[in-house]
Amino acid sequence: MAGRRPNRRAIKRHCSYTTEEAALILGVAKGSVRRWLKAGLPHLAEQRPFLILGSDLRAFLDRRDKPKQRCGLHEFYCFRCREPKPAAGRLIDYTPRTALSGQLSAICEDCDTIMHKNFSASKLALLERQAAVSFPQGDPRLNEMGNPRCDDHFEKELKR
Ligand SMILES: [Zn+2]
């Protein structure tokens, strides 16, 4: 595992680097850095050669090393913070797309950006243990069961 990873600690957050410099301090090929640029590594495009901010480079590598940096059930990937963030106040909306899945929306705890993710309706019960889920368009599970008021039945469903 170790060894092949670029040495992120060599990057100084407040410095900026050319492609060559970044490759050199990280001990990777220049081609790798160019690939990262294509894959979305931010850089100062007005400058030639490109300059990459150390902080951007670090954030990019952090993210890349944990490609599926698992958001917990109640967490979302915030595009502004560039990392998984919990829903502010643990408040999450579920909007069904199909009977089996839908979209969760919440607000980033740190930057107030609206975050979304796809979610399977089968995991809603689990999510509800960690967050307050609301259903602006109705709870899909209630339709399926045909008896929205029968809480007993509901409990049994959850405990299975
Ligand atoms: Zn955020």
From TrEMBL:
Residue stretches making up the Helix-turn-helix domain: 17-64
Protein name: Helix-turn-helix domain-containing protein
Biased composition (Basic and acidic residues): 149-160
Residue ranges of the region described as Disordered: 137-160
InterPro entries in UniProt: HTH_17
Superkingdom of origin organism: Bacteria
Species annotation: Ciceribacter sichuanensis
